[in-house]
Specification:
Length: 237
């Protein structure tokens, strides 16, 4: 049995988040269980990303099978089975190829780098109300002044324009300068705001005409959460 935590243990963690409530020691389905045994219905669900719930048998069995192999970390330099199998499954569902990484912000940073390298251009266009993560480039594309201000200057060359404004987007997305446009088909932190299908269809067309990468940030709304594999898939039918 482990020793109980003290106040000193709690303050050992840097206070970058204002944590609330009791100390949780277990989870079951949609409930969290505190150290005194009280069960709480968790409406936060990992900020909407733990769609399978706590202690899902699917995740549990996969994690146990992975531990049984004894392979903990082998670097990106060796082939191992789980990454290749996951990539193949994702490719079957979504097409394309897969870049595995550790977080949503890192996925977006990776997408910006792919876009710059592919387009040989540098600028990025993002939208009002957006949230794309807390790393330097993803924060530069995030419309949250309170998150941005302490860390400025952020990555240059990123414009944030009004969401849904076709005229502003036509001016901002150019063949000469724009490497990528990044958009959440349904904004999460921005307040569960759906982007109009016509605007997504317009962006697809404008990006194709100007050789610009169109990045759909579906960290919150993808992988079936809106009832289709990609939230950006709704406008295509
Ligand atoms: C739309 C969106 N993109 C990116 C991120 C960043 O993901 P992470 O916290 O895993 O870096 C989030 C996190 O909430 C998000 O909602």
């Amino acid at each position: 049995m482990t020793t109980p935590l003290t106040t000193a243990d709690a303050t050992a963690l840097l206070g970058v988040y204002a944590r609330v409530g009791p100390l949780f020691v277990a989870g079951e389905g949609s409930e969290l269980i505190a150290e005194d045994g009280t069960r709480y219905l968790d409406f936060v669900a990992g900020i909407a990303v733990n769609a399978l719930g706590y202690n899902s048998p699917v995740i549990r069995e996969a994690a146990l099978r992975a531990l049984d192999t004894g392979l903990i970390h082998v670097s990106n330099l060796y082939r191992t089975e789980p990454g290749e199998r996951l990539a193949a499954e994702l490719t079957k569902a979504f097409g394309g190829q897969v870049f595995l990484c550790n977080s949503g912000a890192e996925a977006n940073e990776g997408a910006f780098k792919f876009a710059r390298k592919w387009s040989k251009k540098t600028e990025i266009v993002a939208f009002s109300g957006s949230f794309h993560g807390r790393l330097f480039a993803s924060l530069a594309a995030t419309d949250r002044p309170d998150y941005r201000r302490p860390f400025e200057p952020l990555l240059g060359g990123v414009q944030i324009i009004p969401l849904g404004d076709i005229e502003a987007a036509t001016r901002a997305i150019t063949k000469e300068r724009t490497a990528a446009v990044i958009i959440e088909p349904v904004q999460g932190e921005g307040g569960v705001r759906s982007v109009a299908d016509e605007f997504l269809v317009f962006l697809r067309k404008r990006c194709s005409e100007t050789a610009t990468a169109l990045i759909f940030d579906e960290v919150q709304c993808g992988l079936g959460r809106t009832g289709t594999r990609r939230a950006s898939g709704w406008g295509r039918s």
